[in-house]
Specification:
Blueprint: H1 2-35, E1 57-60, E2 66-69, E3 78-82, H2 88-104, E4 107-112, H3 117-127, E5 134-136, H4 138-143, E6 151-155, E7 161-166, H5 170-182, H6 187-192
Parallel strand pairs: 3-4, 4-5
Antiparallel strand pairs: 1-2, 3-6, 6-7
Amino acid sequence: MNAALVLDIVLWALVGLLSIAVLALARQVGVLNQRVSPAGALTPTAGPKVGEITEVTQTDDLDGTRQRIGGPTSERTTLVLFISPTCPVCKALLPGARSLAASERLRLVFASDGFDAARHRAFSADVGIRRYPYVISQELGLRYGVSRLPFAVLIGADGVLLGRGLVNTREHLESLMESWRSGVATLQDFVRSPVHDVPDATTKEIS
C-alpha cells in the first residue's frame, strides 16, 4: 500500500511538472510570435517598382465591359488579384480579398490568363465573384511581373503602384496596405532596416 501511494505521488508530481513545462513553452511561443515581424507579400525583383506611375491597360471583362487598369483615374484605389481556376490557394484567398476590399473601399478586379472564357465564367460563378470585374489578359500579368499565383497588385487612384507581390493569405494582402501606409516599398525592406524609422502615414487615406 505504501509503495502504491508513493508511486501515485510520484506520477502526479510528474504530471504537474509536465503541465508547468507545457505552459512555459506556450508562453515562449507567444513571445516569439510577438517579436517576429511578418514577412508580408513576397515582392519579386523583376517588374515595375513601387512608386512608379503605372501604364494604362484596357481590356474587356468576362461580361464584355471595358475595364481600365492602371494610369491616373478618378476611381478608387484598385486591387488586382491574379488567380486561376486550377489554383486551390487562390480559391481559399477569395473571401479574404472580398472582405478587405469592402473594409478598405477598394475597387477589386480579378485577373487571369488563358483562352477558355467559359471555364473562367463557370469558376467565377462557383466561387461567388461574378459581380466583380474579371479580366483575362496575359499582357496584364506580364506587365506586373506575375510569375506565380495568387499575386496581388495595388494601384492608387493617381496611377502610382502602391504595392505588388505573391500573396497566400489575407495577412499578405493586408501587408500591401501596411507597407504603403508606412511609406516603405515592401515589408521586407522594413524588416531588413536596422532601425524601423519610417514616416508617420497615419493621416494618409485611400483615395
